[in-house]
Specification:
This protein has 497 residues and is of the alpha+beta class. 54% of the residues lie in helices and 9% in strands. It contains 21 helices and 11 strands. Bound molecules: protoporphyrin IX containing FE.
């Protein structure tokens, strides 16, 4: 009896503390609009239902934000979030709030403290070490890996030439997986020829479960999730993926130690032979990473770098298929660089692909594959555009998808495809945080140069070999990343030599 009374008092105390805290946050953000809410769950009902419905809810929230000053507040159960749909406030959040939001904790069993979700203190130290490895000069060395895999893609896709529409994403994803695995780990996986391995299956299962958890609010509390069969399935499959990366790390450490014993100097090791993988370069740095840290970084890189890059290429293909004039301009630019040659792109070729770069950026603007970025607000922060001080303890959700379609930033034709809006002379007056495809501030995408290189090289090879036709992107859904509900449907025809 005494114990029950004690628990009751503790719960009441906690409840009162929570209500007082919530009231304080509510008062501090009283000037912000809020969509209709329910007691206890707040606005969580907007995030219940299919992934298409969730995207519609997000569009509604974005339109509510636009009617006010580009920001709204949302209560998701006990937590207050400020959703931001304007570049001025997005810049302030992305430059000052470098800690990821709590929602990314679902990734922790998989990615541990890898760069993508590393807590701020660790992230600061590790990002400094990883940054030079993603420098343009270093990733350019991977162009031969990229063009070899692009050639395999062209060969595999030949079956579809002259036939009806098909979903191109799975072909591109296999190609980018091969590129990202080989450059990150130094291991040739050959996913394009063997797409069904236990490792890839396990990876897909983990991603599917995580995706469910992000968008099904009832699966979010650990004590409920752990009661579902998903928890066991996730644990088993994460174990399998860890085992795979652990073995690669172990092998590479032995190779590194052998080379060290022979040469006794890092410079000697770096100077010979094939381009080094990211993993190879992580040995012998200022920080001595443990095998576990190496696995967490490599897993984070392969997960963050693959689907994103593949999706942008697939959206770009659809857009080029719809806009034949733009496709002809891309082709002309390629002919000016390569003549009739089908060779892979070299770094001097990549620099000349200015129109293609604008096309890719426009594709990323219209179909922003990372449509939401969520950060933790750790200290009170003033947002100049919406004129509100966001209190510490809230979450900030920046909406690149919404910002990329603002007429106030991109003009009355914001929803139309116009690569030339990225011409330098058309971009000078644009807000620096208006384009957020790779995020903004010091926690932006570390692989953006590498991603751009992969995208330009693959699209260059593809467009020189195939003509693309497409009708529309069609309705979209959000599954952490942005997907068309009906897939990336295109039709291809081999170009005459
Ligand atoms: C078109 C391709 C890509 C897009 C659109 C993209 C987008 C992004 C975005 C928006 C973020 C920030 C996410 C956030 O703050 O929540 C991010 C982070 C990251 N990206 Fe990319 N990315 C791409 C390609 C790549 C590639 C090729 C790699 C590496 C091979 C990569 C590795 C990473 C990593 C490790 C982070 C975490 C950085 C940190 O927290 O310091 N990405 N990416």
């Amino acid at each position: 009896m005494i114990i029950v009374a004690f628990v009751f008092i503790i719960l009441c105390g906690y409840g009162a503390y929570w209500v007082a805290g919530s009231r304080r946050l509510d008062r501090a953000t009283a000037t912000l609009p809020m969509p209709p809410s329910l007691p206890l769950v707040g606005n969580a009902m907007f995030f219940i239902g299919s992934t298409e419905k969730i995207l519609k809810s997000l569009k509604y929230i974005a339109s509510l934000a636009q009617k006010h000053k580009g920001a709204v507040k949302l209560w998701l159960g006990p937590k207050l979030y400020i959703a931001i749909g304007n570049p001025e406030d997005a810049q302030v959040i992305l430059e000052n709030c470098l800690d990821k939001d709590e929602v990314y904790r679902f990734l922790r069993p998989w990615l541990g403290r890898g760069l993508f979700i590393a807590p701020l203190s660790l992230w600061k130290v590790h990002r400094k070490v990883l940054l030079p490895i993603f420098h343009n000069k270093v990733v350019e060395e991977y162009l031969s890996v990229i063009s070899t895999q692009a050639d395999v893609l062209l060969e595999r896709i030949a079956d579809q030439s002259g036939k009806c529409e098909f979903d191109v994403l799975k072909y591109i994803t296999a190609c980018t997986l091969d590129i990202v695995f080989e450059t990150a780990m130094g291991e040739r996986m050959d996913v394009q020829h063997t797409p069904d391995t236990p490792y890839l299956r396990a990876r897909l299962i983990v991603m599917t479960i995580l995706n469910k958890r992000f968008f099904k609010v009832w699966l979010q509390p650990d004590f409920i999730f752990n009661l579902t069969p998903y928890a066991k399935q996730q644990k088993e499959n994460i174990k399998l993926t860890h085992k795979f990366t652990d073995e690669v790390v172990k092998k590479k450490r032995i190779e590194y130690e052998k080379k060290m014993a022979k040469s006794n100097s890092q410079t000697d090791i770096n100077s010979v032979g094939q381009p080094q993988s990211v993993l190879d370069m992580l040995f012998g740095r200022d920080i001595e990473f443990t095998d576990e840290q190496l696995r967490e970084h490599i897993d984070s890189i392969t997960i963050a770098g693959n689907d994103t890059t593949a999706l942008v290429i697939a959206y770009t293909f659809i857009l080029l298929g719809i806009h034949q004039d733009a496709q002809n301009k891309v082709l002309q630019e390629q002919k000016n660089i390569f003549g009739n040659s089908k060779r892979g792109a070299l770094k001097e070729d990549i620099f000349k692909m200015n129109y293609l770069e604008r096309v890719i950026k426009e594709s990323m603007r219209l179909y922003t594959v990372v449509p939401i970025i969520s950060r933790n607000v750790h200290k009170d922060i003033y947002l100049p555009h919406s004129n509100v001080t966001v209190p510490a303890g809230t979450g900030a959700v920046v909406g690149p998808f919404a910002i990329h379609r603002l007429q106030s930033v991109w003009g009355p034709n914001a929803n139309e495809f116009d690569p030339d809006r990225f011409l330098p002379e058309h971009s000078v007056d644009r807000h620096p945080a208006a384009f957020l495809a790779f995020s903004f501030g010091s926690r932006n995408c570390i692989g953006r140069n590498f991603g751009m290189l992969i995208m330009k090289s693959i699209i260059s090879s593809f467009i020189r070999s195939y003509k693309i036709e497409a009708n529309e992107v069609g309705p979209l859904k959000i599954e952490v990343l942005l997907f068309p509900i009906n897939g990336h449907q295109i039709k291809i025809t081999k170009r005459l030599p």
